User: Which sequence fits this backbone?
Protein backbone atom coordinates (compact mmCIF):
# COMPACT_ATOMS: atom_id res chain seq x y z
CA UNK A 1 0.00 0.00 0.00
CA UNK A 2 1.47 3.35 -1.07
CA UNK A 3 2.13 5.85 1.69
CA UNK A 4 0.47 9.25 1.63
CA UNK A 5 2.43 11.78 -0.40
CA UNK A 6 4.11 14.54 1.59
CA UNK A 7 5.00 17.99 0.29
CA UNK A 8 8.70 18.18 1.18
CA UNK A 9 11.24 15.63 2.39
CA UNK A 10 14.54 16.85 3.79
CA UNK A 11 17.03 14.03 3.23
CA UNK A 12 20.50 13.97 4.81
CA UNK A 13 23.06 11.42 3.62
CA UNK A 14 25.39 10.18 6.35
CA UNK A 15 28.56 8.12 6.42
CA UNK A 16 30.47 8.09 9.71
CA UNK A 17 29.29 11.64 10.31
CA UNK A 18 28.31 11.62 13.96
CA UNK A 19 30.43 14.72 14.62
CA UNK A 20 28.54 16.66 11.94
CA UNK A 21 25.16 15.41 13.17
CA UNK A 22 26.00 16.44 16.72
CA UNK A 23 27.01 19.87 15.49
CA UNK A 24 24.35 20.66 12.90
CA UNK A 25 21.28 18.44 13.36
CA UNK A 26 19.85 20.51 16.25
CA UNK A 27 20.02 23.63 14.06
CA UNK A 28 18.39 21.78 11.15
CA UNK A 29 15.50 20.62 13.34
CA UNK A 30 14.90 24.12 14.73
CA UNK A 31 14.73 25.79 11.30
CA UNK A 32 13.08 22.96 9.31
CA UNK A 33 9.90 22.28 11.29
CA UNK A 34 7.46 22.13 8.36
CA UNK A 35 9.16 19.27 6.51
CA UNK A 36 9.70 15.56 7.08
CA UNK A 37 13.34 14.82 7.90
CA UNK A 38 15.12 11.63 6.86
CA UNK A 39 18.63 10.40 7.61
CA UNK A 40 20.06 8.04 4.99
CA UNK A 41 22.94 6.06 6.45
CA UNK A 42 25.54 4.52 4.14
CA UNK A 43 26.59 1.65 6.43
CA UNK A 44 28.40 3.83 8.95
CA UNK A 45 30.85 2.14 11.30
CA UNK A 46 30.57 4.86 13.95
CA UNK A 47 27.54 5.20 16.25
CA UNK A 48 25.88 8.02 14.31
CA UNK A 49 22.68 6.00 13.73
CA UNK A 50 22.26 5.02 17.38
CA UNK A 51 22.96 8.65 18.33
CA UNK A 52 20.12 9.90 16.12
CA UNK A 53 17.79 7.13 17.28
CA UNK A 54 18.41 8.04 20.91
CA UNK A 55 18.17 11.83 20.73
CA UNK A 56 16.18 12.70 17.59
CA UNK A 57 13.23 10.34 17.24
CA UNK A 58 11.49 12.73 14.82
CA UNK A 59 14.11 11.85 12.22
CA UNK A 60 13.25 8.82 10.07
CA UNK A 61 16.30 6.63 9.42
CA UNK A 62 16.82 4.71 6.18
CA UNK A 63 19.84 2.37 6.25
CA UNK A 64 21.81 1.17 3.25
CA UNK A 65 23.62 -2.13 3.75
CA UNK A 66 26.86 -0.89 2.18
CA UNK A 67 28.52 2.46 1.57
CA UNK A 68 27.23 2.97 -1.95
CA UNK A 69 28.31 6.58 -2.30
CA UNK A 70 26.36 9.78 -2.86
CA UNK A 71 24.58 8.78 -6.08
CA UNK A 72 23.37 5.27 -5.26
CA UNK A 73 22.97 6.12 -1.59
CA UNK A 74 20.40 8.76 -2.46
CA UNK A 75 18.77 6.76 -5.27
CA UNK A 76 18.21 3.75 -2.99
CA UNK A 77 16.62 5.81 -0.24
CA UNK A 78 14.54 8.25 -2.29
CA UNK A 79 12.58 5.35 -3.77
CA UNK A 80 11.06 4.90 -0.31
CA UNK A 81 10.15 8.57 0.18
CA UNK A 82 6.87 9.69 -1.36
CA UNK A 83 7.27 13.45 -1.59
CA UNK A 84 6.70 16.21 -4.12
CA UNK A 85 10.09 17.74 -3.40
CA UNK A 86 13.35 16.28 -2.16
CA UNK A 87 15.74 18.60 -0.35
CA UNK A 88 19.11 16.84 -0.36
CA UNK A 89 21.35 18.27 2.33
CA UNK A 90 24.94 17.50 3.32
CA UNK A 91 25.44 16.70 6.98
CA UNK A 92 28.14 19.40 7.31
CA UNK A 93 25.76 22.32 6.71
CA UNK A 94 24.36 24.93 9.08
CA UNK A 95 20.98 26.16 7.84
CA UNK A 96 19.46 29.58 8.56
CA UNK A 97 16.07 30.75 9.78
CA UNK A 98 13.42 30.58 7.05
CA UNK A 99 15.76 28.89 4.57
CA UNK A 100 13.24 26.42 3.12
CA UNK A 101 10.32 28.72 2.31
CA UNK A 102 11.95 30.76 -0.54
CA UNK A 103 13.11 27.58 -2.26
CA UNK A 104 9.71 25.88 -2.21
CA UNK A 105 7.94 29.12 -3.17
CA UNK A 106 10.23 29.36 -6.21
CA UNK A 107 9.55 25.75 -7.22
CA UNK A 108 5.79 26.09 -6.72
CA UNK A 109 5.68 29.16 -8.96
CA UNK A 110 7.00 27.41 -12.08
CA UNK A 111 6.42 23.76 -12.96
CA UNK A 112 9.34 23.94 -15.43
CA UNK A 113 11.85 24.44 -12.63
CA UNK A 114 13.29 21.00 -11.95
CA UNK A 115 15.79 21.93 -9.23
CA UNK A 116 17.17 24.87 -7.31
CA UNK A 117 19.72 25.72 -4.63
CA UNK A 118 20.19 28.38 -1.94
CA UNK A 119 23.22 30.61 -1.68
CA UNK A 120 26.10 28.57 -0.21
CA UNK A 121 28.41 30.40 2.18
CA UNK A 122 31.54 29.20 3.97
CA UNK A 123 30.83 28.04 7.52
CA UNK A 124 34.39 28.83 8.60
CA UNK A 125 34.46 32.25 6.92
CA UNK A 126 30.87 33.36 6.71
CA UNK A 127 31.45 36.51 4.71
CA UNK A 128 32.67 34.43 1.76
CA UNK A 129 31.03 32.05 -0.68
CA UNK A 130 31.76 28.36 -0.34
CA UNK A 131 33.48 26.41 -3.11
CA UNK A 132 30.71 23.84 -3.69
CA UNK A 133 27.98 25.91 -5.30
CA UNK A 134 28.42 29.54 -4.16
CA UNK A 135 25.48 31.43 -5.72
CA UNK A 136 24.77 28.99 -8.53
CA UNK A 137 26.74 26.75 -10.88
CA UNK A 138 27.74 27.26 -14.53
CA UNK A 139 29.81 25.26 -17.02
CA UNK A 140 32.05 26.28 -19.92
CA UNK A 141 32.40 24.87 -23.43
CA UNK A 142 34.99 22.31 -22.29
CA UNK A 143 33.02 21.04 -19.31
CA UNK A 144 34.77 22.95 -16.52
CA UNK A 145 32.33 23.94 -13.78
CA UNK A 146 32.44 27.29 -11.98
CA UNK A 147 30.04 29.44 -9.95
CA UNK A 148 28.70 32.90 -9.34
CA UNK A 149 31.19 33.73 -6.62
CA UNK A 150 33.85 31.09 -7.39
CA UNK A 151 36.13 30.57 -10.39
CA UNK A 152 38.42 27.58 -9.88
CA UNK A 153 40.02 28.21 -6.45
CA UNK A 154 39.31 31.94 -6.33
CA UNK A 155 36.41 32.48 -3.94
CA UNK A 156 34.71 35.87 -3.67
CA UNK A 157 33.49 37.74 -0.63
CA UNK A 158 29.69 37.90 -0.48
CA UNK A 159 28.77 41.58 -0.75
CA UNK A 160 25.26 40.88 -2.04
CA UNK A 161 26.48 41.05 -5.64
CA UNK A 162 24.74 37.78 -6.53
CA UNK A 163 21.55 38.12 -4.48
CA UNK A 164 19.26 37.96 -7.52
CA UNK A 165 17.58 34.67 -8.34
CA UNK A 166 18.83 33.38 -11.66
CA UNK A 167 18.69 30.47 -14.04
CA UNK A 168 21.90 28.48 -13.68
CA UNK A 169 23.36 25.33 -15.20
CA UNK A 170 23.75 23.21 -12.07
CA UNK A 171 22.68 23.29 -8.45
CA UNK A 172 25.07 21.98 -5.83
CA UNK A 173 24.58 18.54 -4.32
CA UNK A 174 25.52 20.05 -0.96
CA UNK A 175 22.01 21.52 -0.84
CA UNK A 176 19.68 20.93 -3.76
CA UNK A 177 15.89 20.93 -4.02
CA UNK A 178 14.66 18.54 -6.72
CA UNK A 179 11.14 17.96 -8.00
CA UNK A 180 10.70 14.23 -7.43
CA UNK A 181 8.73 13.58 -10.62
CA UNK A 182 11.48 14.89 -12.89
CA UNK A 183 14.22 13.32 -10.77
CA UNK A 184 12.80 9.91 -11.65
CA UNK A 185 11.92 11.00 -15.19
CA UNK A 186 15.68 11.07 -15.87
CA UNK A 187 16.33 8.00 -13.66
CA UNK A 188 17.89 9.91 -10.76
CA UNK A 189 21.61 10.16 -10.17
CA UNK A 190 24.00 8.15 -12.35
CA UNK A 191 25.21 5.52 -9.88
CA UNK A 192 28.46 4.92 -11.79
CA UNK A 193 29.62 8.33 -10.54
CA UNK A 194 29.66 7.13 -6.89
CA UNK A 195 30.36 10.70 -5.71
CA UNK A 196 31.35 14.11 -7.16
CA UNK A 197 29.77 15.92 -10.11
CA UNK A 198 26.74 13.62 -10.11
CA UNK A 199 24.57 16.68 -9.41
CA UNK A 200 26.00 18.50 -12.46
CA UNK A 201 25.27 15.45 -14.60
CA UNK A 202 21.73 15.27 -13.18
CA UNK A 203 21.10 18.95 -13.88
CA UNK A 204 22.51 18.61 -17.41
CA UNK A 205 20.12 15.75 -18.16
CA UNK A 206 17.24 17.77 -16.73
CA UNK A 207 18.17 20.74 -18.92
CA UNK A 208 18.42 18.41 -21.93
CA UNK A 209 14.78 17.54 -21.18
CA UNK A 210 13.78 21.22 -21.27
CA UNK A 211 13.71 21.99 -17.55
CA UNK A 212 15.22 24.95 -15.70
CA UNK A 213 17.69 24.97 -12.80
CA UNK A 214 17.63 28.00 -10.49
CA UNK A 215 19.39 29.65 -7.56
CA UNK A 216 17.37 31.51 -4.92
CA UNK A 217 19.75 33.57 -2.74
CA UNK A 218 16.94 34.67 -0.42
CA UNK A 219 17.73 31.29 1.11
CA UNK A 220 21.27 30.77 2.38
CA UNK A 221 23.17 28.08 4.27
CA UNK A 222 26.72 27.64 5.58
CA UNK A 223 28.78 24.70 4.33
CA UNK A 224 31.93 23.32 5.94
CA UNK A 225 33.02 21.36 2.84
CA UNK A 226 35.33 18.35 2.63
CA UNK A 227 33.31 16.54 5.27
CA UNK A 228 33.72 13.14 3.61
CA UNK A 229 36.69 13.55 1.26
CA UNK A 230 39.36 16.15 2.02
CA UNK A 231 40.30 18.67 -0.67
CA UNK A 232 43.74 17.09 -1.15
CA UNK A 233 42.46 13.52 -1.44
CA UNK A 234 43.75 11.55 -4.47
CA UNK A 235 40.39 9.75 -4.50
CA UNK A 236 38.64 13.11 -4.93
CA UNK A 237 40.98 13.87 -7.84
CA UNK A 238 40.19 10.51 -9.44
CA UNK A 239 36.42 10.95 -9.07
CA UNK A 240 36.40 14.52 -10.37
CA UNK A 241 38.45 13.74 -13.49
CA UNK A 242 36.68 10.46 -14.27
CA UNK A 243 33.17 11.74 -13.62
CA UNK A 244 33.72 14.85 -15.69
CA UNK A 245 34.63 12.66 -18.66
CA UNK A 246 31.59 10.46 -18.00
CA UNK A 247 29.36 13.54 -17.95
CA UNK A 248 30.76 15.06 -21.14
CA UNK A 249 30.53 11.82 -23.08
CA UNK A 250 26.88 11.35 -22.12
CA UNK A 251 25.53 14.87 -22.49
CA UNK A 252 27.38 16.68 -25.29
CA UNK A 253 26.00 16.57 -28.81
CA UNK A 254 28.07 14.43 -31.16
CA UNK A 255 29.65 17.45 -32.88
CA UNK A 256 30.53 18.99 -29.52
CA UNK A 257 31.94 15.72 -28.24
CA UNK A 258 34.23 15.25 -31.25
CA UNK A 259 35.68 18.69 -30.55
CA UNK A 260 35.75 18.71 -26.75
CA UNK A 261 36.92 15.20 -25.88
CA UNK A 262 40.35 15.33 -27.61
CA UNK A 263 41.01 18.75 -26.05
CA UNK A 264 40.04 17.54 -22.60
CA UNK A 265 42.28 14.50 -22.85
CA UNK A 266 45.21 16.80 -23.64
CA UNK A 267 44.31 19.29 -20.88
CA UNK A 268 43.90 16.48 -18.36
CA UNK A 269 47.38 15.26 -19.29
CA UNK A 270 48.77 18.75 -18.65
CA UNK A 271 46.93 18.87 -15.33
CA UNK A 272 48.41 15.50 -14.35
CA UNK A 273 51.92 16.78 -15.05
CA UNK A 274 51.36 19.95 -13.03
CA UNK A 275 50.30 17.80 -10.07
CA UNK A 276 53.86 16.46 -9.95
CA UNK A 277 55.03 19.90 -8.80
CA UNK A 278 52.86 19.77 -5.67
CA UNK A 279 52.97 17.89 -2.39
CA UNK A 280 51.72 14.31 -2.79
CA UNK A 281 51.74 15.06 -6.52
CA UNK A 282 52.62 11.55 -7.65
CA UNK A 283 49.40 10.20 -6.10
CA UNK A 284 47.32 12.79 -7.94
CA UNK A 285 49.21 12.15 -11.19
CA UNK A 286 48.26 8.48 -11.03
CA UNK A 287 44.69 9.41 -10.00
CA UNK A 288 44.28 11.29 -13.29
CA UNK A 289 45.76 8.35 -15.22
CA UNK A 290 43.46 5.95 -13.39
CA UNK A 291 40.49 8.21 -14.17
CA UNK A 292 41.23 8.00 -17.89
CA UNK A 293 41.63 4.23 -17.91
CA UNK A 294 38.35 3.94 -15.98
CA UNK A 295 36.69 6.17 -18.58
CA UNK A 296 37.97 4.03 -21.48
CA UNK A 297 36.81 0.89 -19.70
CA UNK A 298 33.28 2.31 -19.44
CA UNK A 299 32.98 3.56 -23.04
CA UNK A 300 30.47 0.93 -24.18
CA UNK A 301 28.27 1.52 -21.13
CA UNK A 302 28.44 5.26 -21.76
CA UNK A 303 27.40 4.77 -25.39
CA UNK A 304 24.28 2.96 -24.15
CA UNK A 305 23.53 5.81 -21.75
CA UNK A 306 23.95 8.40 -24.54
CA UNK A 307 21.19 6.70 -26.49
CA UNK A 308 18.73 7.42 -23.67
CA UNK A 309 19.61 11.12 -23.47
CA UNK A 310 18.50 13.74 -25.99
CA UNK A 311 21.59 15.94 -26.18
CA UNK A 312 20.69 19.60 -26.71
CA UNK A 313 22.69 22.61 -27.90
CA UNK A 314 22.63 26.19 -26.60
CA UNK A 315 21.56 25.41 -23.05
CA UNK A 316 21.16 28.36 -20.68
CA UNK A 317 24.21 28.94 -18.44
CA UNK A 318 26.40 26.64 -20.57
CA UNK A 319 28.96 29.13 -21.80
CA UNK A 320 30.29 29.11 -25.38
CA UNK A 321 33.78 30.04 -24.21
CA UNK A 322 36.52 28.52 -22.06
CA UNK A 323 36.74 29.55 -18.39
CA UNK A 324 40.27 28.15 -18.46
CA UNK A 325 41.35 30.75 -21.05
CA UNK A 326 39.49 33.59 -19.36
CA UNK A 327 41.02 32.74 -15.99
CA UNK A 328 44.55 31.62 -16.87
CA UNK A 329 45.21 33.81 -19.94
CA UNK A 330 43.01 36.88 -19.39
CA UNK A 331 43.41 36.80 -15.62
CA UNK A 332 39.67 37.02 -14.82
CA UNK A 333 39.00 35.78 -11.29
CA UNK A 334 35.64 37.45 -10.57
CA UNK A 335 32.41 36.03 -12.01
CA UNK A 336 30.83 39.44 -12.66
CA UNK A 337 33.74 40.33 -14.97
CA UNK A 338 32.99 37.48 -17.35
CA UNK A 339 31.20 38.29 -20.61
Assistant:
Amino acid sequence: METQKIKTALVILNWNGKNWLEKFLPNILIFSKDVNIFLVDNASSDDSVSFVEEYYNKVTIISNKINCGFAKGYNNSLRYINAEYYILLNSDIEVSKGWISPLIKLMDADINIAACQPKILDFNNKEYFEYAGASGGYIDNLGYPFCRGRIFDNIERDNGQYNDKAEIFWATGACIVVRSSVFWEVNGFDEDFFAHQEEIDLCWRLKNNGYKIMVEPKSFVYHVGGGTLAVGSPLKTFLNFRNNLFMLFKNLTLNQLLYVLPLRLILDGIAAITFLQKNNGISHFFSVAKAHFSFYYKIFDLIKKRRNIKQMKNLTAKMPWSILLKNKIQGIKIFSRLN
